[in-house]
Amino acid sequence: MAKLAASQNSTSPPPTTIIATPTPTVSLSGSGVANPTAFTTVLTLDVEGLWDLFVGPVSTAAVNTTVSATPIPTNELIPPPGLYYSSFPSGQQIPMASKNESWKFPAGFWWGVASAAYQVEGAAKAEGRGPSIWDVLLHRVTGYTVANQTGDVADNQYYLYKQDIARIAALGVKTYSFSISWSRVFPFGNGPVNELALAHYDDVINTCIEYGVEPSVTLYHWDLPLNLQNTYGGWLGPQIIDDFVAYAKVVFGRYGNKVSRWFTVNEPIVFCETYPVPDNYFTNTSIPKVQQPYWCGHHVLLAHANAYHLAKSMGINGTVSFKTNGGYKIPLTNSSEDAIAVQRAWDFNEGWFANPTFINGDYPQYLKEFVSGFLPEFTDDEKSMMNGTADIFAHDAYTSQFYMAPDSGISACTSNTSHPLYPTCANTTYSYTSADGGWNVGPAADPLSPWLHKATDWVTLFLHYIQDTWHPSGGIAVTEFGFAEPFEVLKTIKADILFDPIRSSYYRDYMEAILIAISEGVKVVGCLAWSILDNLEWSSGYQDKFGVQYVNFTTQERSYKASFFEYVNAFKVYGTDPVTPHYVSS
Ligand code: PNW
Protein backbone atom coordinates (compact mmCIF):
# COMPACT_ATOMS: atom_id res chain seq x y z
CA MET A 1 0.00 0.00 0.00
CA ALA A 2 1.29 3.49 -0.80
CA LYS A 3 2.54 5.58 2.10
CA LEU A 4 -0.60 7.10 3.48
CA ALA A 5 -0.46 8.99 6.72
CA ALA A 6 -3.65 9.07 8.68
CA SER A 7 -5.30 12.12 10.21
CA GLN A 8 -5.82 12.36 13.96
CA ASN A 9 -9.22 10.76 13.80
CA SER A 10 -8.28 7.65 11.81
CA THR A 11 -5.24 5.73 12.89
CA SER A 12 -4.93 3.23 10.08
CA PRO A 13 -6.81 3.98 6.90
CA PRO A 14 -9.12 1.16 5.89
CA PRO A 15 -8.87 0.00 2.28
CA THR A 16 -11.73 0.99 0.05
CA THR A 17 -14.21 -1.50 -1.29
CA ILE A 18 -15.14 -1.12 -4.88
CA ILE A 19 -17.52 -3.09 -6.95
CA ALA A 20 -16.26 -4.08 -10.36
CA THR A 21 -18.13 -5.91 -13.08
CA PRO A 22 -15.53 -7.70 -15.17
CA THR A 23 -16.43 -10.09 -17.91
CA PRO A 24 -16.04 -13.53 -16.30
CA THR A 25 -12.85 -15.29 -17.36
CA VAL A 26 -13.87 -18.63 -15.88
CA SER A 27 -15.62 -20.83 -18.39
CA LEU A 28 -18.71 -22.20 -16.83
CA SER A 29 -20.42 -25.36 -17.78
CA GLY A 30 -23.09 -27.56 -16.35
CA SER A 31 -26.22 -26.41 -14.65
CA GLY A 32 -27.39 -23.22 -12.97
CA VAL A 33 -25.65 -20.53 -15.07
CA ALA A 34 -28.40 -18.50 -16.63
CA ASN A 35 -26.70 -15.16 -17.15
CA PRO A 36 -22.93 -15.21 -16.56
CA THR A 37 -22.36 -11.58 -17.60
CA ALA A 38 -24.49 -10.46 -14.65
CA PHE A 39 -21.95 -11.91 -12.20
CA THR A 40 -20.25 -9.35 -10.00
CA THR A 41 -17.29 -9.55 -7.69
CA VAL A 42 -16.25 -7.39 -4.77
CA LEU A 43 -12.64 -6.27 -4.93
CA THR A 44 -10.86 -4.81 -1.96
CA LEU A 45 -8.23 -2.41 -3.16
CA ASP A 46 -5.75 -0.11 -1.47
CA VAL A 47 -4.48 3.05 -3.17
CA GLU A 48 -1.74 1.18 -5.00
CA GLY A 49 -4.30 -1.36 -6.15
CA LEU A 50 -6.49 1.37 -7.62
CA TRP A 51 -3.53 2.65 -9.59
CA ASP A 52 -2.52 -0.81 -10.77
CA LEU A 53 -5.98 -1.88 -11.86
CA PHE A 54 -7.27 1.31 -13.48
CA VAL A 55 -4.25 3.37 -14.54
CA GLY A 56 -1.07 1.29 -14.74
CA PRO A 57 2.50 2.56 -14.39
CA VAL A 58 3.12 6.33 -14.20
CA SER A 59 6.23 8.35 -15.02
CA THR A 60 8.17 10.15 -12.32
CA ALA A 61 10.32 13.28 -12.44
CA ALA A 62 14.07 13.42 -11.82
CA VAL A 63 13.45 15.95 -9.05
CA ASN A 64 11.22 14.45 -6.39
CA THR A 65 11.89 16.38 -3.24
CA THR A 66 10.88 19.96 -2.51
CA VAL A 67 13.34 22.47 -3.96
CA SER A 68 14.12 25.78 -2.17
CA ALA A 69 13.73 29.01 -4.10
CA THR A 70 16.58 31.24 -5.20
CA PRO A 71 16.11 35.01 -5.70
CA ILE A 72 15.14 36.04 -9.23
CA PRO A 73 18.01 37.86 -11.01
CA THR A 74 17.13 41.44 -11.93
CA ASN A 75 18.11 40.94 -15.58
CA GLU A 76 15.19 38.51 -15.95
CA LEU A 77 12.82 41.30 -14.92
CA ILE A 78 13.60 43.70 -17.78
CA PRO A 79 10.50 44.14 -19.97
CA PRO A 80 10.72 43.58 -23.73
CA PRO A 81 10.73 46.40 -26.28
CA GLY A 82 7.30 47.64 -27.45
CA LEU A 83 5.48 44.95 -29.35
CA TYR A 84 3.00 46.72 -31.54
CA TYR A 85 1.22 50.00 -32.10
CA SER A 86 -2.52 50.58 -31.97
CA SER A 87 -4.12 50.20 -35.37
CA PHE A 88 -5.93 53.15 -36.91
CA PRO A 89 -9.57 52.97 -35.86
CA SER A 90 -10.99 51.11 -38.84
CA GLY A 91 -12.37 47.99 -37.14
CA GLN A 92 -15.99 47.08 -36.59
CA GLN A 93 -15.74 47.59 -32.84
CA ILE A 94 -13.58 50.49 -31.73
CA PRO A 95 -12.54 50.56 -28.09
CA MET A 96 -13.08 53.96 -26.54
CA ALA A 97 -9.45 54.86 -26.25
CA SER A 98 -10.24 58.51 -25.57
CA LYS A 99 -11.48 57.79 -22.06
CA ASN A 100 -8.17 56.67 -20.65
CA GLU A 101 -7.61 59.62 -18.28
CA SER A 102 -10.43 58.36 -16.14
CA TRP A 103 -9.27 54.74 -16.02
CA LYS A 104 -8.17 53.27 -12.68
CA PHE A 105 -8.11 49.91 -10.97
CA PRO A 106 -9.61 50.73 -7.57
CA ALA A 107 -7.70 50.23 -4.33
CA GLY A 108 -7.87 46.59 -3.27
CA PHE A 109 -8.33 45.32 -6.84
CA TRP A 110 -6.79 41.85 -6.77
CA TRP A 111 -4.98 40.44 -9.75
CA GLY A 112 -2.79 37.51 -10.42
CA VAL A 113 -2.22 34.25 -12.23
CA ALA A 114 -3.93 30.88 -12.03
CA SER A 115 -3.35 27.15 -12.39
CA ALA A 116 -4.99 23.84 -11.50
CA ALA A 117 -3.57 20.85 -9.66
CA TYR A 118 -3.66 18.19 -12.35
CA GLN A 119 -2.35 20.60 -14.99
CA VAL A 120 0.80 21.64 -13.10
CA GLU A 121 1.62 19.41 -10.12
CA GLY A 122 2.85 16.14 -11.60
CA ALA A 123 3.98 13.78 -8.80
CA ALA A 124 1.00 11.67 -9.74
CA LYS A 125 1.42 8.95 -7.13
CA ALA A 126 3.56 10.85 -4.63
CA GLU A 127 2.79 10.81 -0.92
CA GLY A 128 -0.38 8.78 -1.18
CA ARG A 129 -2.29 10.59 -3.94
CA GLY A 130 -5.13 8.44 -5.24
CA PRO A 131 -5.95 8.38 -8.94
CA SER A 132 -8.53 10.75 -10.42
CA ILE A 133 -10.65 10.24 -13.50
CA TRP A 134 -8.10 12.28 -15.48
CA ASP A 135 -5.36 9.70 -14.78
CA VAL A 136 -7.62 7.14 -16.43
CA LEU A 137 -8.79 9.42 -19.26
CA LEU A 138 -5.22 10.22 -20.30
CA HIS A 139 -3.56 6.88 -19.56
CA ARG A 140 -6.18 4.48 -20.70
CA VAL A 141 -8.86 5.92 -22.95
CA THR A 142 -8.03 5.44 -26.60
CA GLY A 143 -8.24 8.67 -28.56
CA TYR A 144 -8.79 10.93 -25.55
CA THR A 145 -5.43 12.73 -25.81
CA VAL A 146 -4.08 14.35 -28.96
CA ALA A 147 -0.46 13.44 -28.23
CA ASN A 148 -0.47 10.64 -25.64
CA GLN A 149 0.57 13.00 -22.88
CA THR A 150 -0.44 12.78 -19.23
CA GLY A 151 -0.14 14.85 -16.05
CA ASP A 152 2.27 12.34 -14.45
CA VAL A 153 5.08 14.90 -14.31
CA ALA A 154 3.57 18.10 -15.81
CA ASP A 155 5.42 21.16 -14.39
CA ASN A 156 6.52 19.16 -11.35
CA GLN A 157 5.08 21.99 -9.30
CA TYR A 158 4.44 19.56 -6.45
CA TYR A 159 8.17 19.91 -5.79
CA LEU A 160 9.00 23.22 -7.53
CA TYR A 161 6.27 25.43 -6.03
CA LYS A 162 8.65 27.56 -4.01
CA GLN A 163 10.47 28.79 -7.09
CA ASP A 164 7.20 29.19 -9.00
CA ILE A 165 5.79 31.39 -6.26
CA ALA A 166 9.08 33.32 -6.01
CA ARG A 167 9.02 33.98 -9.78
CA ILE A 168 5.58 35.60 -9.68
CA ALA A 169 6.43 37.49 -6.46
CA ALA A 170 9.43 38.96 -8.29
CA LEU A 171 7.09 40.62 -10.80
CA GLY A 172 4.86 41.98 -8.03
CA VAL A 173 1.93 39.65 -8.76
CA LYS A 174 -0.64 39.96 -5.97
CA THR A 175 -2.47 36.65 -6.13
CA TYR A 176 -1.76 33.02 -6.99
CA SER A 177 -4.87 30.98 -7.64
CA PHE A 178 -4.32 27.22 -7.61
CA SER A 179 -6.44 24.17 -6.90
CA ILE A 180 -6.11 21.45 -4.32
CA SER A 181 -6.14 17.86 -5.51
CA TRP A 182 -9.10 16.14 -3.82
CA SER A 183 -7.55 12.71 -4.37
CA ARG A 184 -4.37 13.78 -2.58
CA VAL A 185 -6.36 14.82 0.50
CA PHE A 186 -8.80 11.89 0.25
CA PRO A 187 -7.13 9.19 -1.88
CA PHE A 188 -10.50 7.46 -2.25
CA GLY A 189 -12.52 10.68 -2.40
CA ASN A 190 -14.01 9.87 0.98
CA GLY A 191 -12.83 7.90 4.01
CA PRO A 192 -9.26 8.30 5.24
CA VAL A 193 -7.55 11.69 5.11
CA ASN A 194 -3.97 11.89 3.88
CA GLU A 195 -1.98 14.05 6.27
CA LEU A 196 0.99 14.26 3.88
CA ALA A 197 -1.17 16.05 1.33
CA LEU A 198 -2.45 18.50 3.91
CA ALA A 199 1.10 19.21 5.05
CA HIS A 200 2.09 19.85 1.44
CA TYR A 201 -0.63 22.44 0.85
CA ASP A 202 0.20 24.00 4.23
CA ASP A 203 3.60 24.80 2.83
CA VAL A 204 2.27 26.00 -0.55
CA ILE A 205 -0.06 28.44 1.22
CA ASN A 206 2.57 29.53 3.73
CA THR A 207 5.12 30.08 0.95
CA CYS A 208 2.67 32.34 -0.89
CA ILE A 209 2.15 34.41 2.25
CA GLU A 210 5.88 34.51 2.98
CA TYR A 211 6.58 35.90 -0.52
CA GLY A 212 3.81 38.53 -0.36
CA VAL A 213 1.42 36.65 -2.68
CA GLU A 214 -2.21 36.07 -1.61
CA PRO A 215 -3.35 32.47 -2.07
CA SER A 216 -6.71 31.81 -3.77
CA VAL A 217 -7.84 28.21 -3.63
CA THR A 218 -10.18 26.15 -5.80
CA LEU A 219 -11.37 22.93 -4.18
CA TYR A 220 -12.30 21.11 -7.36
CA HIS A 221 -10.78 21.69 -10.78
CA TRP A 222 -12.06 18.59 -12.60
CA ASP A 223 -9.81 15.95 -10.99
CA LEU A 224 -12.55 13.78 -9.51
CA PRO A 225 -11.24 10.97 -7.29
CA LEU A 226 -11.58 7.86 -9.43
CA ASN A 227 -13.10 5.86 -6.62
CA LEU A 228 -16.11 8.19 -6.47
CA GLN A 229 -16.70 7.79 -10.20
CA ASN A 230 -16.50 4.03 -9.84
CA THR A 231 -18.65 3.68 -6.73
CA TYR A 232 -21.57 5.95 -7.57
CA GLY A 233 -20.89 7.70 -10.87
CA GLY A 234 -19.15 10.76 -9.41
CA TRP A 235 -21.20 13.91 -9.96
CA LEU A 236 -24.10 11.80 -11.28
CA GLY A 237 -24.78 10.46 -7.79
CA PRO A 238 -26.34 12.45 -4.93
CA GLN A 239 -23.71 10.92 -2.60
CA ILE A 240 -21.19 13.41 -4.06
CA ILE A 241 -22.85 16.22 -2.11
CA ASP A 242 -21.86 14.85 1.30
CA ASP A 243 -18.45 13.72 0.10
CA PHE A 244 -17.66 17.13 -1.37
CA VAL A 245 -18.79 18.90 1.78
CA ALA A 246 -16.69 16.54 3.94
CA TYR A 247 -13.67 17.34 1.77
CA ALA A 248 -14.41 21.08 1.98
CA LYS A 249 -14.66 20.81 5.75
CA VAL A 250 -11.18 19.34 6.07
CA VAL A 251 -9.67 21.97 3.78
CA PHE A 252 -11.52 24.95 5.31
CA GLY A 253 -10.65 23.67 8.76
CA ARG A 254 -6.99 23.33 7.95
CA TYR A 255 -6.28 26.54 6.01
CA GLY A 256 -9.13 28.67 7.34
CA ASN A 257 -8.42 32.33 7.13
CA LYS A 258 -5.07 32.15 5.38
CA VAL A 259 -6.88 32.06 2.04
CA SER A 260 -8.42 35.31 0.76
CA ARG A 261 -10.66 33.74 -1.87
CA TRP A 262 -12.18 30.30 -2.06
CA PHE A 263 -13.69 28.77 -5.15
CA THR A 264 -15.64 25.58 -4.62
CA VAL A 265 -15.76 24.21 -8.18
CA ASN A 266 -14.22 25.28 -11.46
CA GLU A 267 -16.44 25.60 -14.53
CA PRO A 268 -19.24 23.12 -13.89
CA ILE A 269 -20.54 23.80 -17.40
CA VAL A 270 -17.36 22.24 -18.77
CA PHE A 271 -16.90 19.35 -16.36
CA CYS A 272 -20.57 18.40 -16.32
CA GLU A 273 -20.35 18.19 -20.09
CA THR A 274 -17.60 15.58 -19.77
CA TYR A 275 -20.56 13.35 -18.86
CA PRO A 276 -21.21 10.84 -20.29
CA VAL A 277 -17.65 9.64 -19.63
CA PRO A 278 -16.29 7.26 -22.28
CA ASP A 279 -17.91 3.84 -22.27
CA ASN A 280 -16.13 0.84 -20.77
CA TYR A 281 -13.56 2.57 -18.55
CA PHE A 282 -15.77 3.45 -15.60
CA THR A 283 -18.72 1.83 -13.87
CA ASN A 284 -21.82 2.01 -16.01
CA THR A 285 -24.78 4.22 -15.23
CA SER A 286 -28.36 3.85 -16.32
CA ILE A 287 -28.94 7.62 -16.62
CA PRO A 288 -29.59 8.50 -20.29
CA LYS A 289 -26.62 10.26 -21.85
CA VAL A 290 -28.46 13.45 -22.77
CA GLN A 291 -29.56 13.89 -19.15
CA GLN A 292 -26.19 13.27 -17.52
CA PRO A 293 -24.73 16.81 -17.64
CA TYR A 294 -27.85 18.12 -15.89
CA TRP A 295 -27.80 15.54 -13.10
CA CYS A 296 -24.19 16.54 -12.58
CA GLY A 297 -25.16 20.22 -12.50
CA HIS A 298 -27.94 19.55 -10.04
CA HIS A 299 -25.56 17.92 -7.59
CA VAL A 300 -22.91 20.59 -8.15
CA LEU A 301 -25.37 23.33 -7.20
CA LEU A 302 -26.35 21.55 -3.99
CA ALA A 303 -22.76 20.59 -3.13
CA HIS A 304 -21.57 24.14 -3.69
CA ALA A 305 -24.37 25.72 -1.67
CA ASN A 306 -23.81 23.33 1.23
CA ALA A 307 -20.07 24.02 1.17
CA TYR A 308 -20.80 27.77 1.11
CA HIS A 309 -22.97 27.56 4.22
CA LEU A 310 -20.42 25.33 5.90
CA ALA A 311 -17.67 27.91 5.26
CA LYS A 312 -19.81 30.66 6.77
CA SER A 313 -20.68 28.50 9.78
CA MET A 314 -16.98 27.84 10.30
CA GLY A 315 -16.25 31.57 10.32
CA ILE A 316 -14.20 31.53 7.11
CA ASN A 317 -13.65 35.19 6.28
CA GLY A 318 -12.43 34.89 2.65
CA THR A 319 -14.99 35.14 -0.13
CA VAL A 320 -16.61 31.89 -1.29
CA SER A 321 -17.92 31.41 -4.84
CA PHE A 322 -17.78 28.98 -7.69
CA LYS A 323 -16.13 29.77 -11.02
CA THR A 324 -18.37 29.62 -14.02
CA ASN A 325 -17.34 30.18 -17.62
CA GLY A 326 -18.42 31.29 -21.06
CA GLY A 327 -18.14 34.16 -23.49
CA TYR A 328 -20.35 37.06 -24.45
CA LYS A 329 -23.12 35.88 -26.74
CA ILE A 330 -23.51 38.23 -29.68
CA PRO A 331 -26.68 37.89 -31.77
CA LEU A 332 -25.54 37.21 -35.34
CA THR A 333 -28.39 39.26 -36.78
CA ASN A 334 -31.18 41.30 -35.25
CA SER A 335 -33.83 38.68 -36.09
CA SER A 336 -36.18 37.61 -33.32
CA GLU A 337 -35.14 33.93 -33.77
CA ASP A 338 -31.49 34.87 -33.20
CA ALA A 339 -32.52 36.78 -30.07
CA ILE A 340 -34.22 33.64 -28.77
CA ALA A 341 -31.14 31.56 -29.64
CA VAL A 342 -28.99 33.98 -27.62
CA GLN A 343 -31.32 33.74 -24.62
CA ARG A 344 -31.38 29.94 -24.85
CA ALA A 345 -27.59 29.98 -24.85
CA TRP A 346 -27.41 32.16 -21.71
CA ASP A 347 -29.96 29.89 -20.01
CA PHE A 348 -28.13 26.66 -20.86
CA ASN A 349 -24.71 28.06 -19.97
CA GLU A 350 -24.11 30.85 -17.44
CA GLY A 351 -27.75 30.87 -16.30
CA TRP A 352 -27.61 27.15 -15.45
CA PHE A 353 -25.50 27.92 -12.38
CA ALA A 354 -25.86 31.68 -12.00
CA ASN A 355 -29.66 31.93 -11.83
CA PRO A 356 -30.07 29.47 -8.94
CA THR A 357 -27.21 31.17 -7.09
CA PHE A 358 -27.75 34.86 -7.84
CA ILE A 359 -31.44 35.22 -8.74
CA ASN A 360 -34.00 32.83 -7.30
CA GLY A 361 -32.65 29.39 -6.41
CA ASP A 362 -33.99 27.93 -9.64
CA TYR A 363 -33.07 27.27 -13.24
CA PRO A 364 -33.71 29.84 -15.98
CA GLN A 365 -36.79 29.39 -18.15
CA TYR A 366 -35.46 27.62 -21.26
CA LEU A 367 -33.28 25.26 -19.27
CA LYS A 368 -36.09 24.52 -16.85
CA GLU A 369 -38.43 23.60 -19.70
CA PHE A 370 -35.94 20.91 -20.66
CA VAL A 371 -34.76 19.56 -17.30
CA SER A 372 -38.19 19.48 -15.67
CA GLY A 373 -38.82 16.39 -17.79
CA PHE A 374 -36.41 14.38 -15.63
CA LEU A 375 -34.71 16.31 -12.81
CA PRO A 376 -36.45 16.67 -9.48
CA GLU A 377 -37.85 20.15 -8.91
CA PHE A 378 -35.82 22.05 -6.30
CA THR A 379 -37.82 22.25 -3.08
CA ASP A 380 -38.49 25.64 -1.51
CA ASP A 381 -35.91 24.82 1.16
CA GLU A 382 -33.33 23.95 -1.47
CA LYS A 383 -34.09 27.14 -3.38
CA SER A 384 -33.60 29.36 -0.38
CA MET A 385 -30.55 27.33 0.66
CA MET A 386 -28.94 27.94 -2.77
CA ASN A 387 -29.93 31.52 -3.42
CA GLY A 388 -27.23 34.00 -2.46
CA THR A 389 -24.42 31.49 -2.08
CA ALA A 390 -21.71 33.32 -4.03
CA ASP A 391 -19.89 36.32 -2.60
CA ILE A 392 -18.64 37.42 -6.02
CA PHE A 393 -19.51 36.53 -9.62
CA ALA A 394 -16.36 34.64 -10.59
CA HIS A 395 -16.32 34.15 -14.33
CA ASP A 396 -13.78 32.60 -16.68
CA ALA A 397 -14.40 34.80 -19.69
CA TYR A 398 -11.91 34.01 -22.42
CA THR A 399 -13.71 34.88 -25.63
CA SER A 400 -17.00 35.73 -27.36
CA GLN A 401 -19.05 34.17 -30.12
CA PHE A 402 -21.98 34.91 -32.41
CA TYR A 403 -25.20 32.99 -31.77
CA MET A 404 -28.05 32.29 -34.11
CA ALA A 405 -31.05 30.01 -34.57
CA PRO A 406 -30.39 26.60 -36.17
CA ASP A 407 -30.96 26.57 -39.94
CA SER A 408 -34.08 24.49 -39.39
CA GLY A 409 -35.44 27.05 -36.91
CA ILE A 410 -35.64 26.77 -33.13
CA SER A 411 -38.88 24.83 -32.73
CA ALA A 412 -37.82 22.17 -35.27
CA CYS A 413 -34.82 21.58 -32.99
CA THR A 414 -36.54 21.70 -29.58
CA SER A 415 -39.08 19.15 -30.79
CA ASN A 416 -36.47 16.77 -32.22
CA THR A 417 -34.26 15.00 -29.65
CA SER A 418 -31.92 13.77 -32.37
CA HIS A 419 -31.21 17.26 -33.74
CA PRO A 420 -27.43 17.83 -33.44
CA LEU A 421 -27.98 21.08 -31.50
CA TYR A 422 -30.54 19.56 -29.09
CA PRO A 423 -31.26 20.53 -26.31
CA THR A 424 -29.70 24.00 -26.43
CA CYS A 425 -30.89 24.63 -29.99
CA ALA A 426 -28.62 27.64 -30.44
CA ASN A 427 -26.10 27.63 -33.26
CA THR A 428 -22.75 29.44 -33.10
CA THR A 429 -20.14 30.94 -35.36
CA TYR A 430 -16.92 32.88 -34.90
CA SER A 431 -17.54 35.04 -37.98
CA TYR A 432 -19.62 38.07 -38.79
CA THR A 433 -22.22 37.50 -41.53
CA SER A 434 -20.95 37.86 -45.07
CA ALA A 435 -23.05 41.04 -45.33
CA ASP A 436 -20.93 42.38 -42.48
CA GLY A 437 -17.69 41.33 -44.17
CA GLY A 438 -17.43 37.73 -42.92
CA TRP A 439 -14.43 38.45 -40.70
CA ASN A 440 -13.71 36.43 -37.59
CA VAL A 441 -14.63 38.13 -34.33
CA GLY A 442 -10.87 38.39 -33.79
CA PRO A 443 -7.69 36.43 -34.43
CA ALA A 444 -7.88 32.69 -33.75
CA ALA A 445 -5.84 31.00 -31.01
CA ASP A 446 -3.88 27.80 -31.57
CA PRO A 447 -5.87 25.27 -33.62
CA LEU A 448 -5.94 23.01 -30.54
CA SER A 449 -8.23 25.60 -28.90
CA PRO A 450 -10.68 26.14 -31.77
CA TRP A 451 -13.18 27.74 -29.37
CA LEU A 452 -10.86 30.63 -28.58
CA HIS A 453 -10.52 33.91 -30.46
CA LYS A 454 -9.27 37.25 -29.27
CA ALA A 455 -12.61 39.00 -28.87
CA THR A 456 -11.58 41.62 -26.36
CA ASP A 457 -13.76 44.31 -27.97
CA TRP A 458 -16.78 42.60 -26.43
CA VAL A 459 -15.49 42.27 -22.87
CA THR A 460 -16.79 45.63 -21.65
CA LEU A 461 -20.30 44.85 -22.85
CA PHE A 462 -20.05 41.40 -21.30
CA LEU A 463 -19.12 42.78 -17.88
CA HIS A 464 -22.10 45.16 -18.08
CA TYR A 465 -24.32 42.21 -19.01
CA ILE A 466 -23.22 40.18 -15.99
CA GLN A 467 -23.79 43.09 -13.63
CA ASP A 468 -27.18 43.97 -15.12
CA THR A 469 -28.40 40.35 -15.23
CA TRP A 470 -27.16 38.74 -12.00
CA HIS A 471 -26.49 41.86 -9.84
CA PRO A 472 -23.65 40.30 -7.85
CA SER A 473 -23.37 42.41 -4.70
CA GLY A 474 -19.70 41.60 -4.18
CA GLY A 475 -18.82 42.46 -7.78
CA ILE A 476 -17.40 40.51 -10.69
CA ALA A 477 -14.00 38.84 -10.98
CA VAL A 478 -12.62 37.54 -14.25
CA THR A 479 -11.12 34.44 -12.69
CA GLU A 480 -9.55 33.12 -15.89
CA PHE A 481 -8.68 34.75 -19.16
CA GLY A 482 -5.82 33.99 -21.48
CA PHE A 483 -4.79 33.00 -24.95
CA ALA A 484 -3.07 30.09 -26.69
CA GLU A 485 -0.57 31.75 -29.04
CA PRO A 486 -1.02 29.99 -32.39
CA PHE A 487 1.60 27.36 -33.23
CA GLU A 488 3.82 28.30 -30.28
CA VAL A 489 4.72 24.62 -29.94
CA LEU A 490 6.42 24.75 -33.36
CA LYS A 491 8.90 27.45 -32.32
CA THR A 492 12.31 26.07 -31.42
CA ILE A 493 14.27 29.18 -30.42
CA LYS A 494 13.55 30.25 -26.85
CA ALA A 495 13.85 33.98 -27.62
CA ASP A 496 11.21 33.54 -30.35
CA ILE A 497 8.86 31.72 -28.01
CA LEU A 498 9.12 34.42 -25.35
CA PHE A 499 7.97 37.16 -27.76
CA ASP A 500 4.26 36.32 -28.02
CA PRO A 501 2.53 39.14 -29.88
CA ILE A 502 -1.09 37.98 -30.08
CA ARG A 503 -1.20 36.87 -26.45
CA SER A 504 0.37 40.22 -25.48
CA SER A 505 -2.20 42.21 -27.46
CA TYR A 506 -4.92 40.03 -25.89
CA TYR A 507 -3.78 40.97 -22.38
CA ARG A 508 -3.31 44.63 -23.26
CA ASP A 509 -6.74 44.96 -24.84
CA TYR A 510 -8.45 42.84 -22.20
CA MET A 511 -7.13 45.10 -19.44
CA GLU A 512 -8.30 48.11 -21.41
CA ALA A 513 -11.79 46.59 -21.67
CA ILE A 514 -11.91 45.99 -17.89
CA LEU A 515 -10.73 49.55 -17.24
CA ILE A 516 -13.45 50.94 -19.50
CA ALA A 517 -16.07 48.81 -17.73
CA ILE A 518 -14.88 50.03 -14.32
CA SER A 519 -14.97 53.63 -15.54
CA GLU A 520 -18.56 53.05 -16.67
CA GLY A 521 -19.64 51.81 -13.25
CA VAL A 522 -19.22 48.05 -13.47
CA LYS A 523 -17.92 46.65 -10.19
CA VAL A 524 -14.98 44.51 -11.30
CA VAL A 525 -12.99 43.47 -8.24
CA GLY A 526 -10.24 41.23 -9.58
CA CYS A 527 -8.79 39.21 -12.43
CA LEU A 528 -6.56 36.17 -12.90
CA ALA A 529 -4.53 35.42 -16.02
CA TRP A 530 -4.51 31.81 -17.20
CA SER A 531 -1.92 30.56 -16.74
CA ILE A 532 1.08 31.07 -14.45
CA LEU A 533 3.05 28.82 -16.81
CA ASP A 534 2.69 26.43 -19.73
CA ASN A 535 1.00 23.28 -18.49
CA LEU A 536 -1.05 20.22 -19.35
CA GLU A 537 -3.94 21.55 -21.44
CA TRP A 538 -6.08 18.48 -20.64
CA SER A 539 -6.57 16.33 -23.73
CA SER A 540 -4.44 18.71 -25.84
CA GLY A 541 -1.46 17.84 -23.66
CA TYR A 542 1.54 20.17 -23.70
CA GLN A 543 1.03 21.20 -27.33
CA ASP A 544 -1.46 23.98 -26.63
CA LYS A 545 0.20 26.72 -24.61
CA PHE A 546 -1.53 29.18 -22.30
CA GLY A 547 1.40 30.13 -20.05
CA VAL A 548 2.59 33.66 -19.42
CA GLN A 549 5.80 31.80 -18.64
CA TYR A 550 7.47 29.34 -20.96
CA VAL A 551 8.42 25.96 -19.52
CA ASN A 552 11.13 23.81 -20.99
CA PHE A 553 9.62 20.42 -20.19
CA THR A 554 12.99 18.67 -20.45
CA THR A 555 14.78 20.82 -17.88
CA GLN A 556 11.71 22.27 -16.11
CA GLU A 557 13.30 25.71 -16.55
CA ARG A 558 10.81 28.62 -16.55
CA SER A 559 11.09 31.95 -18.46
CA TYR A 560 8.84 34.99 -18.51
CA LYS A 561 7.05 35.66 -21.81
CA ALA A 562 6.53 39.21 -23.12
CA SER A 563 2.80 38.91 -22.41
CA PHE A 564 3.49 38.62 -18.68
CA PHE A 565 5.12 42.05 -18.73
CA GLU A 566 2.22 43.48 -20.76
CA TYR A 567 -0.23 42.18 -18.13
CA VAL A 568 1.72 43.45 -15.13
CA ASN A 569 2.24 46.80 -16.81
CA ALA A 570 -1.51 47.46 -16.77
CA PHE A 571 -1.36 47.52 -12.97
CA LYS A 572 1.78 49.63 -12.90
CA VAL A 573 0.12 52.25 -15.11
CA TYR A 574 -3.49 52.12 -13.91
CA GLY A 575 -3.34 50.52 -10.46
CA THR A 576 -4.16 52.45 -7.30
CA ASP A 577 -2.12 50.03 -5.22
CA PRO A 578 1.63 49.87 -5.92
CA VAL A 579 3.07 46.86 -7.72
CA THR A 580 5.74 45.67 -5.31
CA PRO A 581 8.28 43.07 -6.42
CA HIS A 582 9.41 40.54 -3.80
CA TYR A 583 12.28 38.10 -3.78
CA VAL A 584 14.51 39.78 -6.34
CA SER A 585 18.27 39.40 -6.02
CA SER A 586 20.19 42.58 -5.28
C1 PNW B 1 -10.51 26.58 -18.72
N1 PNW B 1 -14.60 26.95 -23.68
O1 PNW B 1 -11.27 25.73 -19.49
C2 PNW B 1 -10.02 25.72 -17.59
O2 PNW B 1 -10.45 26.14 -16.33
C3 PNW B 1 -8.55 25.49 -17.59
O3 PNW B 1 -8.26 24.34 -16.85
C4 PNW B 1 -8.04 25.42 -19.02
O4 PNW B 1 -6.70 25.06 -19.08
C5 PNW B 1 -8.25 26.78 -19.63
O5 PNW B 1 -9.61 27.17 -19.57
C6 PNW B 1 -7.79 26.90 -21.07
O6 PNW B 1 -8.52 26.03 -21.88
C7 PNW B 1 -12.05 26.13 -20.54
O7 PNW B 1 -14.80 26.08 -24.56
C8 PNW B 1 -12.28 25.18 -21.52
O8 PNW B 1 -15.16 28.06 -23.78
C9 PNW B 1 -13.14 25.45 -22.56
C10 PNW B 1 -13.75 26.69 -22.62
C11 PNW B 1 -13.51 27.65 -21.65
C12 PNW B 1 -12.65 27.35 -20.61
TrEMBL record:
Give the record's keywords alphabetically: Glycosidase, Hydrolase
Listed transmembrane segments: none
Q: Which PROSITE patterns match?
A: GLYCOSYL_HYDROL_F1_2
Q: Give GO terms for biological process.
A: carbohydrate metabolic process
Q: Does the keyword Acetylation apply?
A: no
Supply one GO molecular-function term: beta-glucosidase activity
Pfam families the UniProt entry points to: Glyco_hydro_1
Which residue ranges are recorded for the region named Disordered?
A: 1-23
What the entry lists under InterPro entries is as follows: GH (IPR017853), GH_1_N_CS (IPR033132), Glyco_hydro_1 (IPR001360)
Q: Is Zinc-finger one of the keywords?
A: no
Regarding protein family, the annotation reads:
Belongs to the glycosyl hydrolase 1 family.
Task: Name the chain's protein.
Answer: Glycoside hydrolase family 1 protein
Query: From which organism does this entry originate?
Result: Hyaloscypha hepaticicola
